[in-house]
Amino acid sequence: MLKRIWLHTIGFVILGSCSAQGQSERVFSVPLDDLKTWSEKVVIPVKAKITGHSSVHGVASDCEMHMGATLVGYKGDPVGWVLEPMNLCLEVMPDQEIKKTSDWEVLGDKLVGTTVEASGVPRIWPEHLKVDPKHKDSNPAHATEVHPLVTLSSGPKSFDFGPFVFAPEGFSGIKPRTAQAILTTTRVHVREQSGMVEITFESSQIGNFAELQVTVDRDSIKDIDGSHAMDGTAVAASEEPSDVHLITVTGSAVNDTIASAKKGKKKHVTFDSLVLFSLNPETLFAAATNSHGKEVEVETPIQLIVYGPQQAQ
Fold first, then answer.
1. Mode of pairing for the β-strands spanning 310-311 and 167-168
2. Contacts of 78 by beta carbon, 8 Å cutoff, 6+ apart
3. Is residue 124 a contact partner of residue 288, using CB atoms and an 8 Å limit?
4. Helix ranges restricted to H, the chain
5. Quick one: pLDDT at residue 82?
6. Residue from 241, 259, 237 nearest 300 by CA
7. What is the pLDDT of residues 229-241, one digit of tens each?
8. Cβ distance 185 to 23 under 8 Å?
């Protein structure tokens, strides 16, 4: 018997229908054509109309500024997106001599109501399928994000956020046992009909950032327009490793590390890293193309966006 629950806990939120085993079910949809593009790229270009923005969060939260948006031509359900540049609380705006988080917030004010050219990682993660009434402009109902945001252009101004993709000291994300639960209990099914892919996400937990030990299979590393995609495993809380897909973003230090590993002799490379949970567009798309209107389980549904080990500031 299914029942509706609302449970708030530090670091994560569970919303949805739960079975007796404690699994939370979330359902949303994305266009098949978009899913195909995301399966082939690490960083994608978008045109986004900015609807609002948050304040710049402190390091202990995520050090980001969230910008709510709608994407030109996007027809998923929910339709909202959020654009998230990393580590703005630690970075100086170009051409400014003194670091002030208010500089980024003033930029956000100027962008609201405009359409910008941007690029970044298409992150699929159904944590916020319902509208947040207090922050509906900066955090609309969404299952899709540009996270991390890599570039943004508005009129004559342009920003390169690639070097901002790193793990700052003082931010570790969710607890290890929560991260391990996401790795081991998440089950995803897809069903494609008339060009739309319905995605059903079930997990006992949900969260965003976590510190994990990741192991990369060197032979699987692919260079995709300067970013990298690869297969490997991840583990938290000294448990058994889980199979995952991993990506690193062009312009980041950890992306350079993976490029060096690809040229190295070690079959497997293991390191501790801050990661951002996402669903894996490659396996989502593969399952959707085999759906033929029926529900299909997705193999290796988790993708980790890798930020690297903590950096002292």
1. parallel
2. 28, 129, 140, 141, 142, 143
3. no
4. 32-40, 101-111, 176-185, 253-263, 281-289
5. 98
6. 241
7. 999 999 997 778 9
8. yes
- What is the CB neighbour count within 10 angstroms for residue 23? 18
CB 174 within 8 A of CB 207: yes
Half-sphere exposure of 283 (CA within 13 A, CB side): 21
pLDDT of the residue at 95: 76
Contact 302, 241 (CB under 8 A): no
Q: What are phi and psi of 37, to 5 degrees?
A: -60, -45
pLDDT score recorded for residue 24: 79
**CA–CA dist 175, 180 (Å, integer):** 9
Closest CA to 201 of 178, 182, 224: 182
**Mean of pLDDT over the chain:** 91
For residue 134, the SS3 value is helix
* 74: its two tokens: 């996007």
DSSP for 22-87 reads: --EEEEEEEEHHHHHHHHH-SSEEEEEEEEEE-PPPPTTTTS---EEEEETT---BS-EEEE--S-
d(CA 87, CA 8): 25
Q: How far apart are CA 67 and CA 31, in angstroms?
A: 22
Report which secondary-structure segment, H or E, holds 144: strand 142-154
DSSP-derived pairing of the beta strands 142-154 and 80-83: parallel
Tokens for 263?
């040229």
Residue 206 φ/ψ, nearest 5 degrees: -150, 145
Model confidence band, residue 125 (pLDDT cutoffs 50, 70, 90): very high
Q: Are 143 and 126 in contact (CB under 8 A)?
A: yes
Percent of the chain with pLDDT over 90: 83
83, with CB counted inside 10 A (0-12, 13-18, 19+), is buried
User: What mean pLDDT comes out for the span 120-135?
Assistant: 94
